[in-house]
Amino acid sequence: MASGRIGKDFSPMFDLAKLRDALVGSGADYWLFCNFHHRDPLSDRILELSPSTTNSRWWFYFVPATGEPLRLVHGVEAGALDSLPGSLLRYDSRAALEAALARFKGKRVGVQWSETVSAISTLDHGMARLLESAGIVLVPADTLVQRLSGRIDAAGIASHEKAAANLYEIVRRVWARIDDRFRRRERLTELEAQGWILGLFEEMGMETDHPPIVGAGVHTNDPHFAPDRAVDRAFVEGDIVQLDLWAKLKAPAAVYADISWLGVFGSSVPEKALAPFDALIAARDGAVSFISAASEGGRRLSGAEVDAHVRNGLIAAGYAGALRHRTGHGIDLEVHGSGANLDSVEFPDHRELIDGACFSVEPGLYFEDFGLRTEIDVYMKDGRPLVSGGKPQAAFLLCGRP
Q1: Which domains does the chain have, with CATH numbers?
Q2: CB of 212 within 8 A of CB of 170?
Q3: Is the N or the C terminus of the chain less surrounded, counting Cβ atoms within 10 Å?
Q4: pLDDT for position 7
Q5: Are 40 and 87 in contact (CB under 8 A)?
Q6: What are the start-end ranges of the E strands in 145-239?
Q7: Where are the beta strands (DSSP E) in 7-125?
Q8: pLDDT tens, residue by residue, 221-250
Q9: What does the pLDDT look like over 46-94, one tens digit per residue?
Q10: CB contact set of 246 (below 8 Å; sequence gap of 6+)
């Protein structure tokens, strides 16, 4: 086992200070990043390591709250962490690795593991057991990740606001085309409408990780329905239509926006949808009011508290059997980001909605032959929840009206 120091060749883009800031007050002595075959894309992204490099041996990067980081690498891939600052320690056997890890015996170390926040829980059980056998106390890094990458700064807010405004405009333009087809009595399918959205993404310089949801009729009762050539329904007069679209600008460090709107391929709303739609609008807007009232009282709510508030309201309104998913998810460089989710039942998220937190608010109700979901994005700034993009939907989009 050999050691050495490299101090001049690390990336000038890497910001060690931000990692240290995340550790302050966290209760962890170190934040550990480690990877094997790039199984943890979050660590690669945070450390600005290319996912295309060879990673056939475990590497470890220990970042302390104060002091110099340690790069622990296998001799076969000794340069794996050359882009990062810190002292260098090489191992070439299991025994040597165990001896190196024993340096951290008794230390509280944040790792990419969480019982409830699956998005950051990438540490495998075998490595967790090895670390614990070295006497290391493992601390979930969900709060660390939130502090570092689960909140957006001023540039991120601007990027997110632009993306959200674009999505609102895309909904307006796509619905105008849907309305035109209805007036002309011309055939329209879910896949064709989805293609319109994707074309507008390209026109507006946006990108997405998955095509948008366009569901009509019974397909709206599937929260993750996606049309394809095998399942592509033609719109029928009277169909409820669900549009769910998410995208970000084609720019470095761009932040996603994610919205859902509801319409009817017709000139009037089916009676069955009126009451649940009103309940969803009240629940969605009530979530923002709930956060705002708590903030004005000097209290930060957790994602779980907001979800419970929304869920309890919908249950009280008689819709317990129509609930299928959480109220919202964190948003940042990924559409399902690293920050707090509005979730009290699936994977309860007790992280607070801190300044810079960006998240969706998207309550949904699903019945046998139709479903409804309305979605807005919110970010926290100066302790206040701000809705991005424009005026949220308050009524169904309709066709054939004057």
Answers
A1: 3-149 (3.40.350.10), 154-387 (3.90.230.10)
A2: no
A3: C
A4: 33
A5: no
A6: 206-207, 213-216
A7: 30-35, 59-64, 70-74, 86-91, 108-111
A8: 999 998 887 789 999 999 999 999 999 999
A9: 999 999 999 999 999 999 998 999 999 999 999 999 999 999 999 999 9
A10: 167, 208, 209, 210, 212, 256, 257, 258, 259, 335
